[in-house]
Design brief:
heterodimer; A: about 575 residues; mainly beta; two-stranded antiparallel sheet; 6 helices; about 5% helix; B: about 170 residues; alpha/beta; five-stranded mixed beta sheet
Chain lengths: ~575, ~170
Amino acid sequence: MFVLLLVSAFGTTFAQHQLGNSRISGDFGFNGMYYIPDSLIGADKVDSKVRANAFINLLYSNGGFSAGVRYEYYQFPLIDFEKINYKGQGVRYFFADYKNDFIQVTAGNFYEQFGNGLSLRAYEDRQLGIDNSLLGARIRITPYKGIRITGVWGVERLNFESYQGRQDYVRGLDGEVSLGEIIPKMQEKGFTANIGASFVSKFEKADEPILVMFYPETDTSAPGVIATDKIPQNVPVWAARASFGYKGFRLDGEYAQKMQDPNVTNDFIYKKGDALFLSAAYSMKGFGVAASLIRADNMDFRTQRMQKTNSLLFINNIPAINRQYSYQLISNYSFASQPNSQIGAQIQINYLIPKKTKIGGKYGTNLTFNYSRFHNTDQQPVALATEYGTLSGTDGYTSSFFKFGPDLLYQDIGLEIHRRLTKKWELTLAYNYITYNLEKLQGHVGMMRGHLVAADLQWKVNSKHALRLEAQHLYTKDDKGSWLYGMLEYSISPRWFISVGDQFNYGNPDPTYRLHYFNVAGAFIWNTTRIALNFGKTQEGILCIGGVCRAVPASYGVGLSVTTSF
Amino acid sequence: MKKTLLLAIVMLACVAIKAQDAPTSQHLAKLPAVDIQTPDGHVFNTKDIQNDGKPIIVSLWATWCRPCVAELTAIADEYEDWVEELGVKLYAVSIDDAKTSARVMPFVNGKGWDYTVLLDVNSDFKRAMNVNDVPYMCILNGNGEIVWQHTSYAPGAEEEVYEVLKSLTSK
């Protein structure tokens, strides 16, 4: 508590003051809720009705030197954070950093990404409760303009658990060369080319055997046990990448391979894992097309082999490349990345029908088309696995590289039209057909096939006042059936928002559960401070950001959120 | 215990809000120097966000963020006039990560935006700017000092942006 008070006193004195070259800045967030039980929606009685997540960041910088500290208070966290064990309080992020044109040295906690993150990505997503920062050191050198070499060593953060006694750490090396920067002539002609490679290795002490249901290849004297000396303590991953661009055209690719890593998420197999990520894009003013392809097999790479909780202790990040929507009714059917088994592709086309044309209208019309499809990878158990009736302890399976597996995980076909009708009216219409594998992605039964129609109509009453209506309809016979959603938002720029909304599960196969989830919210914004209040119900589901998802329990109550930076 | 916590938090919030009232006679803050990327994949240091002594708008946004796109779309309708009249330059710093960063340029071009686009794929710039949520926008004066900043977007907010820019250039 004292820390917090001290910090606030400190904050007052120096906030946003630049004294000479030194500067202190920071940000603060508070997210609290008062919970009301509601047995119908499944919002259980919680032991502490008032809960909150809070943190404060302070940053100091002076020329090339910077340092920072974050204090987090999650002692009585929101129930969804408690579910993922993000509970505790203290300083879990602090660093000091020095940087000039040649070298950058960081000590303490840091975030880092090599290439697309297939080999290493330490990052944070506060809404999801993800913080994979590494505690250790990082050195980055730029020996020549366009060449960068980065080395890292660190222990990965695990919620609020102590770093003491940890027997695992990560080290990595990455090199990147931008030919366009080295050869200016190339850039003048519109060409760019970058190449890079990384090597990441985790060490985790193996001091006890792993008990699993299997029969070892070599030693049948102790069935069901992977002996300590058969567990790899070092698991390396290497990756190579290249990108090429010419004017509006760009091609990117990265391939990564993981060495033997028997762990709880892959059933303790000894097969090597690999991932391929390719993307191609072309754009010119008024038109853009982007296509990407991803294949990942056995690429769940974590600092602890027994960790299987979603989002904890990941060293790398296999992106889910589907289009990310903000439509309320399909938020529960958002594809989650499957690092151990996914192959799929995505294409998106953006087109602007020019303004002042017959079809484009006075302001032009935006069209977005999207298609994506993901399967699991093809997996054929090795002979030994078939013989023993289990994959564990064997090489697992073989997989032909570009073959789609038998299970469709996710498919999305979508079209979105946005048009400013007049100076005051603006309309967005969208249609999506979504196929979502409930069994593979949520552990429920079957598939969800649904049609989503959405409309977003905005009326600018005058220069500061605006009214916005969002209406959505999800039509499906699967899962919880069809839904309707409506939301009205009134805003007075730039300070005030007020909204009322309702989500109605009118098509639930069980009439008892044809429920309404209403929500009333208001927000006040002042420069970089935002204070929001809301009252309503949230259905049980999943929250996905960037293809990473976590479960959200049903809840009912009053919420207050305050964020600010200074 | 919980009451003390609440008190501390409320205090802190008040302090933070008050802190924004810091007198303008102080040296104004400049942008932090952070290495991010150009859409070509080159390293770009944010200290190089410049516009020959003319005002700059910096927007932190993402392709998946509805209000961000609404804000940049609203400004796009006026942008040509602003550039002509005030010589302003808008840097649209996308926080899209590897999942969607390859789609940023097709998205921007597909919208017909004329902004200077930069990529902050692991949110390093966002963190150094102490930004919690997008959309976030700030305006820099000719000396690169932050004179105005704002989070969220409500339709019509672009008019305040215009007013601020105008007051900068008329001085």
